[in-house]
């Protein structure tokens, strides 16, 4: 019995890897992908996890409060310098179709009595971002859905336009359900399933380094090259990965796409915000064919 027990202990100890093996890039990425199956990480998660108390809300892992007393530093940055906030957990819905049809149906879920609408000239041109409150179709001032922000893609000469609507993740399902109802969008016949979801368990096994006969053997892909895992976002905090993320209307031709976690969103606060953007972003040179 003692001999059998010793054999089992050796097998269990061999499964645990040393810190050097766990900190290898190939194993770190696989571990991060495994830990994101229930709660999605933002692009700035590692930075926040080292400095903030993290909370799990709306299917995401978000930074709640700093571990150090940095309130004065944040206030000083907002008033004199620049403070950046990661709002990538906000949900984005993309509407594509004819401008007249979009405005006709969107007018049913908002009212001019509350302020700006989707038809505002400055917002319709795509130069400015607008904000308004959405209601259920033809139910104003009752049955409010919640506040949203939107931005139109500038005109390119075509009658088709693109509209991006941003909302809090707690409001996404209600607003998405209302948009599909007013535009008469149906579920697609073929479900769009992300590949990483079905192969997440297999990928984790493939990315592990197998120790055999005292030599390290790395897993190779079909082409014989080293398989390096990349960060994969499996769905998002408000959408099941096995559900579709695009709906189209056969009558109006309007297409609704869920762009959550595909478009990052940051907020800059402070008098030096424009200076930071000017120094960070560089204009691309136009190339004509």
Automatic annotation (TrEMBL):
GO cellular component labels? nucleolar ribonuclease P complex; ribonuclease MRP complex
A Pfam family it matches: POP1_N
Looking at the record, the residues that make up the Pop1 N-terminal domain are 4-97
The GO annotation for biological process reads: tRNA 5'-leader removal
Q: Which InterPro entries match?
A: Pop1, Pop1_N
**Protein's name in the database:** POP1 protein
What organism is this sequence from?
Nyctibius bracteatus (Rufous potoo)
């Amino acid at each position: 019995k003692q001999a059998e027990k010793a054999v089992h202990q050796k097998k269990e100890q061999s499964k645990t890897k040393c810190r050097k093996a766990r900190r290898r890039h190939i194993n770190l990425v696989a571990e991060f992908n495994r830990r994101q199956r229930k709660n999605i990480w933002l692009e700035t998660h590692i930075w926040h996890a080292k400095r903030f108390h993290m909370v799990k809300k709306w299917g995401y892992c978000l930074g709640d409060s700093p571990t150090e007393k940095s309130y004065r530093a944040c206030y000083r940055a907002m008033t004199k310098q620049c403070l950046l906030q990661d709002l990538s957990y906000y949900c984005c819905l993309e509407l594509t179709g004819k401008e007249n049809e979009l405005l006709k149906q969107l007018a049913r879920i908002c009212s001019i009595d509350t302020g700006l609408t989707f038809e505002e000239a400055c917002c319709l041109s795509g130069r400015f971002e607008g904000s308004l409150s959405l209601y259920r179709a033809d139910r104003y001032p009752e049955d409010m859905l919640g506040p949203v922000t939107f931005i139109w893609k500038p005109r390119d000469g075509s009658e088709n336009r693109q509209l991006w609507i941003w909302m809090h993740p707690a409001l996404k399902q209600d607003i998405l359900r209302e948009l599909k109802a007013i535009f008469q969008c149906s579920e697609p016949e073929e479900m769009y399933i992300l590949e990483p979801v079905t192969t997440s368990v297999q990928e984790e096994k493939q990315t592990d380094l197998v120790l055999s006969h005292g030599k390290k053997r790395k897993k190779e892909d079909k082409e014989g090259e080293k398989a390096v895992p990349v960060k994969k976002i499996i769905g998002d905090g408000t959408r099941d990965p096995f559900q579709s993320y695009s709906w189209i209307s056969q009558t109006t031709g309007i297409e609704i796409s869920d762009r959550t976690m595909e478009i990052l969103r940051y907020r800059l606060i402070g008098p030096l915000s424009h200076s930071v953007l000017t120094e960070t972003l560089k204009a691309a040179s136009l190339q004509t064919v």
